[in-house]
Amino acid sequence: DTAVSQTPKYLVTQMGNDKSIKCEQNLGHDTMYWYKQDSKKFLKIMFSYNNKELIINETVPNRFSPKSPDKAHLNLHINSLELGDSAVYFCASSQGSGGVGETQYFGPGTRLLVL
Amino acid sequence: RKEVEQDPGPFNVPEGATVAFNCTYSNSASQSFFWYRQDCRKEPKLLMSVYSSGNEDGRFTAQLNRASQYISLLIRDSKLSDSATYLCVVNTDYGGSQGNLIFGKGTKLSVKP
């Protein structure tokens, strides 16, 4: 049983396309996150949602739009993909409201390559 | 100054060696501290939380010095399976009760037979 799952695992697409990445957690957690890990391996938060409500929105282009249909799912839609969007995108979840001290559990990552 | 800084390594050590990683953070209001481990092409996984009093989990010992804004991880009796990238992670208050994990770029460890 995968606690935090993401689909697809790999995504290769052309510049200008629109794509979505899906994330699901079966841990019963209240908070979910999207992180981006770039080619330099730097992992940085993009968004977090608590019970379907946005609580963190870092400086991310508005081409990126998260959507949380329910607290077990947090999807990431990316419009007009650019070369610089190539990275590994990790979904994560934590039990509470995303407060300090909470352990976050990460999904396996989605490797996005924009050509 | 980066929020969380680590020596990227790589640290190449023989099996059985003791190795120490250091990390500094810039935000004095940071409240929680962690070490995560990330294997090649895998997701980060929590290795251990770091407490002010220092804490130990088997061969791993973590220390926190709030005055110096410095965190360390000591691995004793290194195993081949310890080879990975070790991420220093700091949780800062994003506002209200929300936290925001800030990751260092990681220190790569390679344990050789």
Key attributes of the depicted protein:
heterodimer; A: 115 residues; mainly beta; seven-stranded mixed sheet; four-stranded antiparallel sheet; globular; B: 113 residues; six-stranded mixed sheet; five-stranded antiparallel sheet; 0% helix
Offer a concise description of the structure.
Chain A has 115 residues and is mostly beta strands. Chain A has no helices and eleven strands.
Question: Layout of SSEs?
Answer:
The complex is a heterodimer of chains A (115) and B (113).
Chain A: E1 4-7, E2 10-13, E3 19-25, E4 31-37, E5 43-50, E6 53-57, E7 64-70, E8 73-78, E9 87-94, E10 105-106, E11 110-114
Parallel strand pairs in A: 2-11
Antiparallel strand pairs in A: 1-3, 3-8, 4-5, 4-9, 5-6, 7-8, 9-10, 9-11
Chain B: E1 4-6, E2 11-14, E3 19-25, E4 32-38, E5 44-50, E6 55-57, E7 60-65, E8 70-75, E9 84-95, E10 98-103, E11 107-112
Parallel strand pairs in B: 2-11
Antiparallel strand pairs in B: 1-3, 3-8, 4-5, 4-9, 6-7, 7-8, 9-10, 9-11
Rg value of chain A: 13 Å
Terminal CA distance of chain B: 37 Å
Order of helices and strands of chain B: EEEEEEEEEEE
Q: Unreliable segments of chain A (pLDDT under 50, ≥5 consecutive)?
A: none
**How much strand content do the residues of chain B show?**
over 45%
Radius of gyration of chain B, rounded? 14 Å
Largest sheet of chain A: 7 strands, mixed
Mean pLDDT of chain B: 90
Oligomer: heterodimer
Helicity level of chain A: under 10%
Q: Care to count the β-strands of chain A? A: 11
Content of β-strand of chain A:
over 45%
Classify the secondary structure makeup of chain B into a structural class: mainly beta
